Amino acid sequence: MPNKNKKEKIKLKDFLKVPNILSCIRIVISIVIIALFFVNDYLWLIKWLFVIGVLTDTLDGNIARIFKQKSRLGVILEPIADTLLVGGTVLFVTFRLDLPKLFFIIYLAIFFIGFVITIFVYLIKRQWFAEKLVVSEVAIVFVYATGVFYLFDLPFKKYLALFSIGFGIAALIDLVIKLIKFKGRAKFKLEKIQHKKDFKMINAK
Question: Which residues of the chain have pLDDT under 50?
Answer without folding.
Answer: 1-6, 186-193, 199
